[in-house]
Amino acid sequence: MQLNLNAAFSALADPTRRAILSRLAKGEATVMELAEPFEMTQPAISQHLKVLEDAGLVTRRVEGTRRPRRLAKAGIEAMDQWLAMLQKTLARNYDRLDQVLADMEETTEKTKKEIRRGEKR
Amino acid sequence: MQLNLNAAFSALADPTRRAILSRLAKGEATVMELAEPFEMTQPAISQHLKVLEDAGLVTRRVEGTRRPRRLAKAGIEAMDQWLAMLQKTLARNYDRLDQVLADMEETTEKTKKEIRRGEKR
User: Fold this and answer.
1) ipTM score over 0.85, yes or no
2) How high is the pLDDT of residue B28?
3) In chain A, which residues have their Cβ closer than 8 Å to the Cβ of B77?
4) How far apart are CA B38 and CA B3, in angstroms?
5) I need a surface site. Which of A117, B18, B47, B90 has the fewest CB within 10 A?
């Protein structure tokens, strides 16, 4: 899993590969079908697809002589889960900070009241 | 933004950098504070932090002679949004497939009924 996450995040560091994933999210496509809109040669597309397949983000299906590629949901979800974990920890940390600030405010208010009471005497 | 996403995803392709981000999600820390649990030299940690800062995932604060690092929420959210967009497109595509399958099933049922009606005659 660790290794897969490395390869998955690395694969996403390229704008063409991100665009290929966006295209495949809409439905499966062959190398030929991908080469046209991207104005790239088929070998270039194949190379990007190989990186995406090795990272577990894309799978291929056999249909006669066609090899349509589709998005691998599990690979995308693995990255999503890692980011979600990070944001959850961050949110918990913010909540704790909020509590600290609220406690500080409360203490300040108490001190102010005590000072006012002292002044009145 | 495009450039930032490249650097951000690339930065996450390293397990040590992901671990540093997980640690910083819990609260800010200096290079010295990070070096200890990771059992790495301070220059090694500094180098990882530079990659994370350049990618917009970590920021530094000046506090006297200390330079505590913290997570940059916006950078994390940018990646999260890209993945969310991908999953939304994928879900929409699945919904459409479900509709196609439902339509096919309906047609099949109709055909079956017509065949049965034909047999009865």
Assistant:
1) no
2) 93
3) 87
4) 29
5) A117
